[in-house]
Amino acid sequence: MRQPNQARRDELVARTLDYLAEHGLAEFTLRGLAAELDTSARMLVHYFGTRENLLDQAFDEHRARAVTAIQAAKGDSAAAAVAWDTMSDPANRGHYVVLFHLLAAGLTDGPYTAVARHAVTDWIDEVTHLLDDRDNPRADATVLVSGLKGILLDLLVTGDRDRCAAAAHRLIGLLT
C-alpha cells in the first residue's frame, strides 16, 4: 500500500480546521469535508484512517498553533494585550470558533474530552511560564486565560467589540 504524502496530509489537516471554523463540529462528516476539499471520503480514510483520527490531528494542529502564538509572546511586557488583540482579530475568528466547538464537545465524556482538556491546560501551562515570578503563577494564568476566553466567547456571540475589548484590557490591567 502506498504511504500518504505528508505535505498533502498537512494541507488536509489545515483545510479541515478551516472547514470546522466555517461549518462547526456538530455536523462534521467525511463526505461533507471531502466535497469541500475536492477529494473523496475514501481518500480522507486513506490519509487518516478514521474520522476521529482526522479530527484528533486537526485539533492537535489547532492546539500547536495556539501554543506557538503564546510562546511567541514570551518576554513581551505587553504579551497579554498582544494576545487579546490576536484573539479578537476578525481574521482569527474561525480559529477560535473551532476552539469553542472543541471545548463544548469536551463537556461530555467522549472522543473529544482529552483533546479539550489539553486545549485548556496547554494554554494555562504556557502562560504560567510567562508569570513564573508570581506568588501563584498557575492561578493567575488560569484567571487570565479563562477570563480572556470568556470575554472572547462573549465577543464572538454578541459582536460587541468595544465592550469586550474594554473588559479584556481591564482584566489584563488587574493581573499585570
TrEMBL record:
Q: Which InterPro entries match?
A: Homeodomain-like_sf (IPR009057), HTH_TetR (IPR001647), Tet_transcr_reg_TetR-rel_C_sf (IPR036271)
Top-rank taxon, per record:
Bacteria
The organism of origin for this protein? Actinokineospora xionganensis
- Give me the positions annotated for DNA binding: 29-48
Q: What is this protein called?
A: TetR/AcrR family transcriptional regulator
Q: Which UniProt keywords apply?
A: DNA-binding
Q: Which residues form the HTH tetR-type domain?
A: 6-66
Lineage start: Bacteria, Bacillati, Actinomycetota, Actinomycetes, Pseudonocardiales
